[in-house]
Amino acid sequence: MSLKEIAKAPKPRNQVEDTKSVIRWLRTNARKLGIDPQRIVATGTSGGGDLALLSYLNTAFEDPQDDRSVSHRPNALVLYCPAFDGINIWFVKTESLLQKTKADAPSFVALLPKFVKDITSEYATPLDHRADLIQLAAKLGTEKGLDESEVKRFQQILNMFNQRDWQLLHPAEDALKMSAFRILTKEPLPPTLIMFGKRDHLYEHQKAFVERARSLGQKFKLKIYAGGGHSFMIQPAFMKPSTREVETFLRSIDYIDQE
Length: 259
Hints:
Layout: H1 3-8, H2 12-28, H3 30-33, E1 41-45, H4 47-57, E2 76-80, H5 86-90, E3 92-93, H6 94-104, E4 116-117, E5 123-126, H7 130-143, H8 148-158, H9 166-169, H10 172-177, H11 180-183, E6 192-197, H12 203-215, E7 221-225, H13 236-252
Parallel strand pairs: 1-2, 2-6, 6-7
Antiparallel strand pairs: 3-5, 4-5
């Protein structure tokens, strides 16, 4: 996919808009669907868990066709191994890029504006696909007579930009408005269950969000599964226990019948 095609592609912000639109649609059509419009639970796994939370928290992105008189906020949340803070998971901090370049490939420090946009911003936005940037490093290295080993070290640094060109698809300014860690306030969350595994590769981000939420006085049910990795709930050892956890939570808020 070319850069122009990426620029035209749907953005993650559209996913937030769509999630909020779905909740509004459910609430508007609750009578037809035979559901209680005041008992809508948003749930999801990983990025979907983050979207479920953002359907409640996010106020920055709205589908212009939505009826905003209808609340987009779910009445409860069940979040499985959520990717709470996408910008710190997927984006490269400019300071980290600069430090790494200075240490391992100093000849490329002055050349960084050819690789990233605005090296004074908090997060580094690549100017092209990672593979193309790696080729550019080789070309500039040859033109400027740089040591081949230094060129290779800089090419390794460029691997900080992930293979999916996430920074090209997802502008940093959007990501900051979708960072649950940053946009969470003291306004109470709805009844919320958060579950993740201690072996999840996102564990540090998940733990940081929990600590941030608690520092703001937020109340929620938290279950951390020892030995559980990402998407732990589909693994045989955790499937039944996590399902029981959700059932217990929903009964505790009177969303399903008591046993």
